[in-house]
From TrEMBL:
<protein>
    <recommendedName>
        <fullName>Arf-GAP with coiled-coil, ANK repeat and PH domain-containing protein</fullName>
    </recommendedName>
</protein>
<keyword id="KW-0967">Endosome</keyword>
<feature type="domain" description="PH">
    <location>
        <begin position="157"/>
        <end position="252"/>
    </location>
</feature>
<feature type="repeat" description="ANK">
    <location>
        <begin position="562"/>
        <end position="594"/>
    </location>
</feature>
<dbReference type="InterPro" id="IPR038508">
    <property type="entry name" value="ArfGAP_dom_sf"/>
</dbReference>
<dbReference type="GO" id="GO:0010008">
    <property type="term" value="C:endosome membrane"/>
</dbReference>
<dbReference type="InterPro" id="IPR001164">
    <property type="entry name" value="ArfGAP_dom"/>
</dbReference>
<keyword id="KW-0863">Zinc-finger</keyword>
<dbReference type="InterPro" id="IPR036770">
    <property type="entry name" value="Ankyrin_rpt-contain_sf"/>
</dbReference>
<keyword id="KW-0862">Zinc</keyword>
<feature type="repeat" description="ANK">
    <location>
        <begin position="529"/>
        <end position="561"/>
    </location>
</feature>
<feature type="region of interest" description="Disordered">
    <location>
        <begin position="272"/>
        <end position="291"/>
    </location>
</feature>
<dbReference type="InterPro" id="IPR002110">
    <property type="entry name" value="Ankyrin_rpt"/>
</dbReference>
<dbReference type="InterPro" id="IPR027267">
    <property type="entry name" value="AH/BAR_dom_sf"/>
</dbReference>
<dbReference type="InterPro" id="IPR001849">
    <property type="entry name" value="PH_domain"/>
</dbReference>
<feature type="compositionally biased region" description="Polar residues">
    <location>
        <begin position="272"/>
        <end position="281"/>
    </location>
</feature>
<keyword id="KW-0343">GTPase activation</keyword>
Length: 669
């Protein structure tokens, strides 16, 4: 600064004191002038105050003048000295700057050349952007849905990121919009850009993800870990599917890096923090034992000891809608196909409903490969092995399940026309699994179609004689059943009719082959009261056939010409297990048929206590959720426990549910 800061500061303080004393003196002068003549005491006091104030004012005035003179004296030489120093500094600075810049002159010329190129590139990019902008403006944005992608091998480690709504865990269950990302095998979020990341799932290898259709808000999905669950909502169905696939792909990618044992230990350590360490360890051991039990049971099915697509031993992942077991690498490829093609689930980490477990035991790798790889040998194609590259496996899986190039063509009336005199007809055998024969090996091509009055394509085992029995996989009702469906003209054979007949005959392999050939899972038979395959599965009494159709997208609320949905038919027939299954899948129990009856009134008339209990519990739970609003719990604990118990009973002990009125059910068909 031109003048020392301390001198200026002292001058300003002196000025403030001088101004204050001057004001005090003016006040004393006013008081002295106002002192009354006849009050000597006040006159004396005012005079004394004025004397003291005037004396103080004169002293401060001298100090103030002194400070002014000191500053004026310093200005004569200190300012000039500072200016001279500044000029020397400027000279030195620019002299050194010139020397430095002279040395980097070649670099500046190179930089100028690059700058010219950047200007040219920028102009080209601007023209391209203007062209794209013009094209985009011509597109229809009535439904704006941005392109979403994820990359498990992203260089920065972020598989996917974007905004999601998160349901809070507080009592109000509020929804907040947060920025989520999948990185380093973790699901994290933050409120603002500079906020610290909050970890939702510490290790994605210990969690599963599933869509949620039983809440009011749309596009929701849930990430479930051993210690907690997190409900999230995307902005569209496309975004929801992208997030689900991204989480599943991250799980698959993480499992490729380390063996399962590491994560079983992590599972033990990440047990629910609300319980004691002993309880957590016990729960983890029980969960691990349960997972191993499911794994051993499903792997015992013929063909399930190795991956369905590459032959890798000890597969621990399943495609639940296809009924096959997969290795970790093939499961990741299946996830990339989308849930409409393959729904992947872990045999050791995910929870398994009893009906889904029985479905996996009904099909298996051998059975499904006889469908999807029927023409491989004839075409001379070589199946990839466990040591094949991921690209080879991915190409094989897409050709096998998406393009479906290895399927055996369905027989037609023209295919077997030569040297035949008898009518060309077909029917579907009943698929019955006896004790000790669960998952029996696939025998021949005739398991799929029983060609009555047509020479079989290859030898097949003799058909068992019709008998009155309770099927292990039925809903718990004893019925007299015929061995095969009604005869049909071979010329009318098509995938829709095939799955329709197979659903009634409980023949899951035929149903799977019909779907492989493009059968519509909700195909309507206009010659049979507009019934669907799901309704036929109900009529056939097969809980597992219903589960298979639902896993493949069957509409649980599609009704026939009489206004009866699958839930109506299951209630009429007293199929308690199917009623429980449909209610869990969101069946509408308030719909009435042409007689004005809903499932509850039908069950009450039939005096079926189990079904009445299930329907009333479901209705009460629905009313409770409506009363709590969109932030309520997804289900009452008692309700969930009872439905879980009925599911286990229907799958494992169906005879306990055989309480319906046989006369009533037949009279109402």
């Amino acid at each position: 600064t031109p003048l020392p800061a301390c001198d200026v500061r002292k001058f300003k303080e002196t000025k403030k004191q001088f101004d204050k004393v001057r004001e005090d003196m003016e006040i004393s002068l006013v008081k002295n002038a106002q002192a009354p003549r006849h009050k000597p005491h006040e006159v004396e006091e005012a005079t004394g105050t004025l004397t003291i104030t005037r004396k103080c004012f004169r002293h401060l005035a001298l100090d103030y003048v002194l400070q002014i003179n000191v500053l004026q004296a310093k200005k004569k030489f200190e300012i000039l000295d500072a200016m001279l120093s500044f000029m020397h500094a400027q000279y030195t600075f620019f002299q050194q700057g010139y020397s430095l810049l002279h040395e980097i002159d070649p670099y500046m010329k190179k930089l100028a050349t690059e700058l010219d190129q950047l200007v040219i590139d920028s102009a080209v990019e601007k023209r391209e952007m203007e062209h794209k902008h013009a094209l985009i403006q011509q597109r229809d944005f009535s439904y704006d849905d941005s392109k979403v992608e994820f990359n498990v091998d992203a260089p920065n480690g972020v598989v996917m990121e974007g905004y999601l709504f998160k349901r809070a865990s507080n009592a109000f269950k509020t929804w907040n919009r947060r920025w989520f990302s999948i990185q380093n095998s973790q699901l994290v979020y933050q409120k603002k850009l500079k906020d610290v990341l909050t970890v939702v799932v510490e290790d994605l290898r210990l969690c599963t993800v599933k869509p949620c259709e039983d809440i009011e808000r749309r596009f929701c999905f849930e990430v479930v870990s051993p210690s907690k669950s997190c409900m999230l909502q995307a902005d569209s169905e496309k975004l929801r599917q992208a997030w689900i696939q991204a989480v599943q792909a991250s799980i698959a990618s993480a499992y490729r890096e380390s063996p399962d044992s590491c994560y079983i230990e992590r599972l033990d350590r990440t047990a629910s923090p609300s319980t004691s360490s002993i309880d957590s360890a016990t729960d983890s051991r029980e969960r691990s034992m349960k997972g191993e039990s499911i794994l051993q049971r499903v792997q015992s099915i013929p063909g399930n000891d190795q991956c369905c697509d590459c032959g890798q031993a000890d597969p621990r992942w399943a495609s639940i809608n296809l009924g096959i077991l997969l290795c970790i690498e093939c499961s990741g490829i299946h996830r990339s196909l989308g849930v409409h093609c393959s729904k992947v689930r872990s045999l050791t980490l995910d929870s398994w409903e009893p009906e889904l477990l029985k479905l996996m035991c009904e099909l298996g790798n051998s059975t499904m490969n006889q469908i999807y790889e029927a023409q491989c040998e004839a075409l001379g194609l070589k199946k990839p092995t466990a040591g094949s590259s991921r690209q080879d496996k991915e190409a094989w899986i897409k050709v096998k399940y998406v393009e479906k190039k290895f399927l055996r063509k369905l027989p037609t009336g023209e295919a077997l026309a030569e040297n035949e005199r008898k009518p060309r007809c077909w029917s579907v055998k009943k698929w019955s699994i006896r004790n000790g024969e669960v998952g029996a090996p696939w025998q021949s091509s005739t398991w799929c179609l029983c060609h009555w009055l047509i020479p079989p394509l290859s030898p097949s085992p003799p058909c068992p004689s019709p008998e009155c029995e309770v099927s292990e996989e039925s809903s718990g009702e004893a019925e007299i059943e015929q061995e095969a469906s009604d005869l049909e003209d071979l010329r009318e054979l098509h995938p829709g009719l095939l799955i329709y007949k197979a659903a009634q005959a409980r023949n899951l392999p035929v149903m799977a082959e019909a779907l492989a050939h493009g059968a519509e899972v909700n195909w309507v038979n206009d010659e049979d009261e507009n019934k669907t395959p799901l309704i036929q599965a109900v009529m056939g009494g097969s809980l597992i056939a219903c589960e298979f159709l639902l896993q493949n997208g069957a509409d649980v609320n599609q009704r026939d010409i009489r206004g009866r949905a699958p839930l109506h038919h299951a209630t009429y027939l007293g199929h308690t297990g199917q009623v429980c299954l449909f209610l869990k899948r969101g069946a509408n129990q308030h719909a009435v048929d042409e007689d004005g009856q809903d499932p509850l009134s039908i069950a009450v008339q039939a005096a079926n206590a189990d079904i009445v209990t299930l329907l009333r519990l479901a209705r009460m739970n629905e009313e409770m959720r409506e009363a709590e609003g969109p932030f309520g719990q997804p289900g009452d604990a008692t309700y969930l426990d009872i439905f879980r118990e009925f599911s286990h009973m229907a799958s494992n002990n169906p005879e306990k549910l055989n309480r319906r009125s046989l006369h009533f059910s037949h009279s109402c068909r």
